[in-house]
């Protein structure tokens, strides 16, 4: 019998709401209030999200973030900063003990990202998992060249012709896995790189040129870029097929929504959290 998971489409939300919702979904699932969840969401306004351990004053040009009127939030997951603008963001929330979920982080990436792989391929893209093979590639993951997330693919992220098309991050908290990530439709690389600090213009130019070689948005790969609703349909079906589950459309009730808004305000919108590192 096929297991039933929840499917939540949150639409476009503020950055602090997005992170609070992911955290609350983990809590509700841990408490047995809801089954595992696949969630899709967007960002309004365009927002920069920091990895949990990222050093904000070292890496980020806060004046540029204000100048671009972008949101700013720290994720509960690790990794590097991402500019969320014209993208579909996904999250998967499931217990570590769920059948078929590997204990190792890297292997869990592979399993949970299988839905992305099926979604990209159903959109007509020749996507595959990135697997760093050489010692140089593995070392580059330990010592990234920049604070920009899409600078290089990690284990089992999505690539087309060697260029990264999706970036994901994962955390495990009290027995529950959260994996979320960005499926980039188009990207304004000038805006993205404006928000980071570099020693000088020459270094920024070199990093930005390298970025174009290592990452690519869907708009550069598809003759006709799929609209957001089409993307949601393909990736929803991709997750169902990959995980062997049925996704039931669900929305939080009024009490749950109030919990999310409270957490968003008290934690993710707070300067103490944003400037934690």
Protein model, in words:
The chain is an alpha/beta fold and 277 residues long. It has one domain (3-274): 2-Layer Sandwich (BirA Bifunctional Protein, domain 2), CATH 3.30.930.10. The chain has 10 helices and 12 strands. It has helices at residues 15-30, 56-59, 62-67, 105-122, 135-142, 189-194, 201-214, 228-243, 254-268, 271-274; strands at 3-13, 37-43, 47-50, 71-74, 82-84, 87-95, 128-129, 158-160, 163-164, 166-173, 176-184, 245-249. Strands 10-11-6-2-1-12 form a 6-stranded mixed sheet, with helices on both faces. It has a 3-stranded mixed sheet with strand order 4-3-5, with helices on one face. α1 (15-30) crosses α9 (254-268) and α4 crosses α8 (228-243). The chain starts with a strand and ends with a helix. The relative contact order is 0.20.
């Amino acid at each position: 019998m096929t297991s039933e998971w929840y499917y939540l489409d949150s639409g476009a939300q503020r950055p602090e709401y997005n992170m609070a919702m992911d955290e609350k979904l983990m809590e509700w699932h841990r408490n047995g209030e809801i089954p595992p969840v696949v969630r899709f969401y967007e960002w309004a306004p365009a927002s920069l999200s920091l990895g949990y351990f990222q050093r904000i004053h070292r890496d980020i040009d806060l004046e540029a973030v204000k100048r671009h009127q972008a949101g700013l939030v720290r994720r509960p997951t690790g990794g590097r900063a991402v500019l969320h603008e014209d993208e579909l963001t996904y999250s998967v929330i499931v217990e570590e003990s769920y059948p078929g979920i590997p204990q190792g982080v890297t292997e869990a990436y592979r399993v949970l990202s299988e839905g992305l792989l099926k979604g990209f391929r159903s959109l007509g893209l020749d996507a595959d998992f990135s697997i760093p093979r050489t010692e140089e590639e593995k070392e580059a993951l330990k010592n990234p060249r920049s604070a920009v997330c899409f600078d290089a693919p990690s284990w089992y992220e999505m690539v087309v012709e060697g260029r990264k098309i999706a970036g994901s991050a994962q955390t495990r908290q009290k027995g529950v896995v959260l994996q979320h990530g960005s499926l980039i439709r188009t990207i304004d690389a000038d805006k993205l790189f404006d928000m980071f600090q570099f020693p000088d213009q020459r270094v920024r130019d070199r990093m930005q040129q390298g970025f174009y070689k290592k990452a690519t948005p869907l708009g550069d790969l598809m003759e006709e870029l799929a609209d957001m609703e089409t993307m949601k349909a393909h990736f929803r079906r991709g997750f169902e097929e990959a995980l062997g589950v049925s996704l039931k459309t669900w929305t939080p009730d009024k009490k749950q929504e109030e919990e999310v808004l409270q957490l968003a305000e008290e934690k993710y919108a707070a300067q103490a959290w944003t400037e934690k590192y």
